Task: structure prediction
Amino acid sequence: DDPFAVIFDPAEVEKALEIPIEDIHLKFNTLFPDLAEPELCKVLCFPFAQHYIADSPGRRTYIKDINDMIENYNKIADMKEIKTFSTRNIKIMFLMGISLFMVIIISLLILLIINL
Result:
């Protein structure tokens, strides 16, 4: 399998196994090319696959061992209603902002024309 690059919070990799950079050879960066540095700065192998439990910025799930990882995974898997992230609300707010801006501009233009 071809490995891929991901940037993690240092707290998440506290117990990771470090791999010498010279032992890894990337063909190309397919994850955010032109955003991340093209050269590797650190290569790690995670214990217990703890990076599969994604946390929000500023919040961290502490995984003690493989049994703890399985227990945390099962809690997530057993949830009945997990809402998928949607950009719908962001789009609505963006469109409302544009609409409000247009209404204000048109109102100001009408007032300007009336006062001339």
